[in-house]
Write a structure and sequence with these properties.
Elements: H1 15-20, E1 36-43, E2 46-48, E3 54-57, E4 74-83, E5 96-100, E6 117-122, E7 126-134, E8 144-150, E9 162-165, E10 172-175, E11 184-190, E12 193-199, E13 208-217, E14 221-222, E15 229-232
Antiparallel strand pairs: 1-2, 1-3, 1-4, 4-5, 6-7, 7-12, 8-9, 8-13, 10-11, 11-12, 13-14, 13-15
Length: 253
C-alpha cells in the first residue's frame, strides 16, 4: 500500500486510519481488500492529499460528509481517488466545486472566476477595466459579470457599478445600458477565452479606485473572488513637455 497509509504509530487510530479502518490491522496492513474510494478536499484548487475527508465503499455512488467547517467567501474543490485492494491510489477525479458565500451558505453551480483583470486610464477621468472569462472546465455558463468599484470605503458586493452580459461570440462594441452598466463593454472571441471590458463614467480626479469582477449565473449565485485591480482617475492628462532644446543643421543639396 502507499506509504502514507501506514499507521502503526497510532495503531490505526489516527484521523486517517480511523476512516480507513486501519485499527483492524493495528495500522500495519491495508484492511480494504475490496478497494474503496477516498475523498479529499482543498481550497481554491489546492487539494490536501494528506488528510482524508471521507471514505466510500467501492459500490457507493454518494456520501454525506458531516461536521465540516467551511468559512464564508471560500471556494472548495472535492476530488475522489480509487484505492485498490492493496492500497494503491488512482489519479484525481475531476473536481466537484463548492462555493460558500458571505453568509456561510453554499451556492448552487457557479461559473468559473474571470481572469485576469486589468485597468487603464482614459481621458476625462475615466477608467477602463478589462478581463477574460475562461470556459475550460466550467460547470455552468455565466449569465454575465458584475463589476464592483471601491472609491475608498470598501467594496459593496450587494451593489455592482455595472452588470455586463456574457456574450463571448460577439465581436465589437455593444451598449450595456439597461443592464446596469454606465457606458460600454466589448466581447472579443479569443479561442476559449472571451475578453471583455467596461468603461466607467467621469470619476474624481486624483482619486484611487479599485475594481473587482465576478462572474454570476442568474438563480444560482456569483463567484466569491475578492481580488482587485486599482488605478487613479486622471482628468488632466500628463504634464506638458519641458526643457525642449531645438537644433538644426544644413543639409547639402
Amino acid at each position: 500500500m502507499d506509504t502514507k497509509f501506514f499507521d502503526s504509530l497510532y495503531e490505526g487510530d489516527s484521523a486517517n486510519g480511523t476512516k480507513l479502518g486501519m485499527g483492524l490491522t493495528g495500522g500495519e496492513f491495508w484492511p480494504r481488500v475490496d478497494g474503496c474510494y477516498i475523498l479529499y478536499r482543498g481550497q481554491d484548487g489546492i487539494i490536501d492529499h494528506d488528510n482524508i475527508t471521507a471514505v466510500m465503499d467501492g459500490d457507493d455512488n454518494q456520501i454525506a460528509v458531516s461536521n465540516q467547517s467551511l468559512s464564508p467567501n471560500t471556494t472548495w474543490h472535492y476530488i475522489r481517488r480509487e484505492a485498490s485492494g492493496c492500497g494503491l491510489e488512482s489519479p484525481d477525479s475531476p473536481p466537484c466545486i463548492v462555493v460558500i458565500d458571505a453568509n456561510g451558505d453554499m451556492l448552487g453551480d457557479v461559473p468559473n472566476t474571470s481572469d485576469p483583470v486589468s485597468v487603464e486610464q482614459l481621458a476625462g477621468g475615466k477608467l477602463r477595466v478589462r478581463w477574460r472569462y475562461p470556459q475550460i472546465g466550467q460547470d455552468v455558463e455565466p449569465t454575465g459579470f458584475k463589476v464592483y468599484m471601491d472609491s475608498g470605503s470598501g467594496f459593496d458586493f450587494d451593489t455592482p457599478a455595472a452588470t455586463i452580459a456574457y456574450r463571448p461570440w460577439l465581436a465589437g462594441e455593444f451598449s450595456s445600458e439597461g443592464m446596469g452598466g454606465l457606458n460600454e463593454s466589448v466581447a472579443i472571441m479569443q479561442g476559449v477565452s472571451g475578453e471583455f471590458f467596461w468603461t466607467s463614467g467621469e470619476l474624481v480626479d486624483g482619486q484611487l479606485y479599485k475594481f473587482c469582477v465576478r462572474a454570476y449565473r442568474s438563480g444560482e449565485g456569483e463567484t466569491q473572488n475578492t481580488d482587485y485591480v486599482s488605478a487613479y482617475a486622471d482628468a488632466t492628462g500628463p504634464d506638458a513637455a519641458a526643457n525642449l532644446i531645438a537644433s538644426w543643421q544644413e543639409v547639402p543639396d
